[in-house]
Amino acid sequence: MLHLSEKPHFIYTCLMLLAWVSQYVSLSTGFELNHSLTYIWPLPHELTSGNETLTVNPTLSLYLIGKGGNFKILREGFRRYKRIIFKQSSGVSIFKNLRRIRSIYDISQIRIIVNSDSDELKLGVDESYTLFITKTGGKSIAWEAIIEVNTVYGALRGLETFSQLCAYDYTTKSVQLSKAPWYIKDKPRFAYRGLLLDTSRHYFPVDVIKSIIDSMSYAKLNVLHWHIIDKQSFPLEIPKYPKLWNGAYTKWERYTVEDASKIVRFAKTRGIHVMAEVDVPGHAESWGVGYPDLWPSNSCREPLDVTKNFTFDLISGIFSDIRKIFPFELFHLGGDEVNIGCWNNTPHVKQWLKDNNMKPKDAYKYFVLKAQEIAISKNWTPVNWEETFNAFAGSLNPQTVVHNWLGPGVCPKAVAKGFNCIFSNSGVWYLDHLDVPWEQIYNAEPLEGIDNESKQKLVLGGEVCMWSETVDTSNVQQTIWPRAAAAAERLWSTKSALSAGNDTVLHRLHYFRCLLQRRGVQAAPVTNYYARQPPAGPDSCYWQ
pTM of whole model > 0.85? Predict the structure, then answer.
């Protein structure tokens, strides 16, 4: 038996041995694609493929047809994906005599047919696409790539898939597309496929948020749930109440209204909604740094003071200001983890409760419902964490979207009462839980046994949550990826389309993790016991 003090050294020795063995194996065998698998993430709804390998012209051009052919979003999207596809094949080699210059390519143009003349981005916007990579008609041996869509956002999803079919070949120094001809008919399983980012516990610069949005688009996630403010800090500028961002950590860790608008516009060009969250009445201590009257007392700094008209006037002012920034129809009002006992221990609040014949739990309901009324008056649909549903489901506005987090079984209860629901069971889809492996995330099912088709439609989708108590710019992408990709495929791909068996999925997930790394995303090893840990030793990206 090992003495306790010897165990760390023993474990370290074992890990180093495993690393050495894996290095030997990888050097001996290398990584080979399993040609029976489809290396597209998330897996498309329907597809067929062949066995031919094509070359793609580095001067690939775009030909737009249809009502939506003039949209800037689509032209910028094509240029962005062209840079991704030809990242390694661009530039001039100093060894000109060794560089193989090809004059004839199989694919030199991609045609995109857009049937809608609207670029409005709303929940449930049509993201479907059909991708053809096939020989042209007649006796010509030329090939063509065609994406047919109803909206520009379907076109962006189709371009992402096309980019994943392309790979740089180091021998020919050209971009190749394998397994042609391709026919892919694809659409998302759920309309809401989200990632929560918490910028209160740690501040993230605007460019970092943009890089996260970019990485979301690679996995076809489409909602950034921006948990902007919380107890710890209030980094967002609110013009009507300029002292609110006195609650930021420092004057350098803030978001101007222009910053927030840039993020929303940037996300739209990737087909991604931004849902803001202003959590009330709890998680709001930072508000009182600039406006101390919001605190019930110095010893009770949250929940916000329910007795004062000023509290609700300020909330209405916040909502009015940020409604100009966030066009998405869903708006998150929080409502979780409210310490109502604090109210009962504050004399003037206790007297107000008595005068209004309320108990603290009644005041909690009063506050949540009043905040919902204000949000609805700004033409938002309110989203609340599940505590509000658990406490007073019968009083919630019928428009309420219930956001699950405490555990399983909430969405079935919510949809049974006619509410929409978002699945985020913290036991499997909280990314700050570093000991949750990718398999558990992948196997989590948002419908949770709901078999009635009309009730299934009330589950909007789900979201993985990146709470930032132990996350900042130095490690956020490693904590998000690649585990968020497991949820992304669960939310996009139909059950019938998903690969059978975790061994098969793991092979594909390794490949996608390496694709993320090639695109500059710091995705951590897939199979580490704790997420975001560095590799245990030397090996290929495709094995770790």
Answer: yes
